[in-house]
Amino acid sequence: MATRYIFITGGVTSSLGKGLASASLGALLQARGFSVLLRKLDPYLNIDPGTLSPYEHGEVYVTDDGTEADLDFGHYERFTGVPTESSDYVTTGKIYSSVLTKERRGEYLGSTVQVIPHITDEIKNFITNKTHGVDFVLCEIGGTVGDIEGLPYLEAIRQLRNDLGRDRTLFVHLTLLPYISTAGELKTKPTQHSVKELLSVGIQADLLLCRSDRPIPWEAKRKLAQFCNVPSDCVIAALNAQNIYHVPLQYHEEGLDQQVCRYFGLQDASADLSRWYRIRDQLEKAVEPLKIGIVGKYVQLLDAYKSLIEALHHGGYPNHAKPELVWIDSQDTENLKQKLTDVDAIIVPGGFGERGIEGKMAAAEYARENKVPFLGICFGMQLAVIEACRHQLGLHNASSSEFGPTEEPVVGLLREWQSEEGVQTRSETSDLGGTMRLGSYPCVLQKGSLARQIYGEECVQERHRHRYEVNKAYLDRLAAVGLIGSGLSPDGKLPEIVERIDHPWFIGVQFHPELKSRPFAPHPLFVSFIAAGLTYKKQKS
Ligand code: GLN
């Protein structure tokens, strides 16, 4: 079957959950037996989101091939299980940079380089590149219709409708129907305006996905259909969901996938939604509360920990546990101990910079001494190792070169490492963008270790995003006080997992296991961590 393209735009306001909507539609098409690919075009000028503040943009998601992508990629992968890669994510910055490089190389043969056709052609190439054999490409256009930044993208998809034809392209527009209490009504006007705005750039929406906090009356649907020029079956309610994993089932009940398949003349395929019913059942059974303390710096914007939050919930399913996340500001060291006594397990997640490290190390120390289950992720592992060096080996100056020159570089800058593209190098003065160990790397698990038992495998692939590494020489000294390296890079040089042999569950990982957890395939580390938390909770009471 020729590849079909579904373009998802957003109207009225941002934050309506376009990523989630795209991911859910992808999951529904998969349930009908089609292969899907999810892509996103982001209208900002940054080349990638690696240098964006997590306070503003939330988590940076990392793919297997080391692409730093928007957090919507987490939704895409969690809902479809399809790994994304660099050819699935583009920003305006990347598009322009590629066009300007071509211009410098003289590839445009002296023609005037313009937004139309050069930028739009680059966008169209991005959308249609590497899609061979894929049934559906779902393309999310970042931002809101009407933004100046989004115009080249809208122009490009308008052209694609002409290039590929109506039977291979579908425009989905996600909007909001606000409820006005004084009128006692859901209002359709903002959606009408937003559809008109799209029309002004030559795009007629084919299907409206309407976010609403209550069921949409038939009358409102009819009005929207009439004013927005779409069939009334194609006005689909996207009601607020109790849990994000209910969304595919809700959309299905509203007829989203039926309408999409009807549009493309593919109504024969029936949907097998058993995976999503199973997840719904598991969610219902996950009731045993478990307090997990998360000690971090970005606790004001929880989107910074999006994948971590999801992975903890996934880990709860097989344990019938419902994690209650207790956010603990690592900079508030005064009340830290008090807060930690109240939780059943502790996490120190990934992070950057010196601010708040004392609190994070105090959390690792508390977990070590009181035998509370502890998971240190990336920065969390590095700080757990520094903590052990300072307090167990008596190396008071133990530190990371991330915080400036140090006599005891327990965590240091790795200047050279082997990746699939060959030897990579970096130095203190390298640009901040693109100088990290990024993407999937193998990790060999030591025989007899807890890590090996949890994974049940000898070698695993996990995703990384960090600039510094634990210095193996220090780790070798820590074995005498109970902290061992239980996962190493295949050459044995880089500590990837550490664990305490004198503790029921104390693990640090240099990678981000949360990125690979799926609701239908919870990550083993999180499943085991939650189980350890439940055991600890029982013993405590
Ligand atoms: N700041 C640390 C480093 O760059 C850890 C990064 C992280 O936690 N992702 O190595």
Description:
This protein is α/β, with parallel strands linked by helices and 541 residues long. The chain folds into 2 domains: 4-279, Rossmann fold; 288-412 and 470-487 and 495-540, Class I glutamine amidotransferase (GATase) domain (Rossmann fold, 3-Layer(aba) Sandwich). Helices cover 36% and strands 24% of the residues. The chain has 18 helices and 25 strands. Strands 13-12-14-15-25-24-23-20-21 form a 9-stranded mixed β-sheet, sandwiched between helices. Strands 5-2-6-1-7-10-11 form a 7-stranded parallel β-sheet, sandwiched between helices. A 3-stranded mixed β-sheet has the order 16-17-22. The longest helix has 17 residues, at 524-540. The radius of gyration is 25 Å and the shape is globular. The N and C termini lie far apart (59 Å). The site of glutamine has 10 residues, from strand 21.
Defining traits:
2 domains; alpha/beta; about 550 residues; about 35% helix; 25 strands; binds glutamine; globular; Rossmann fold
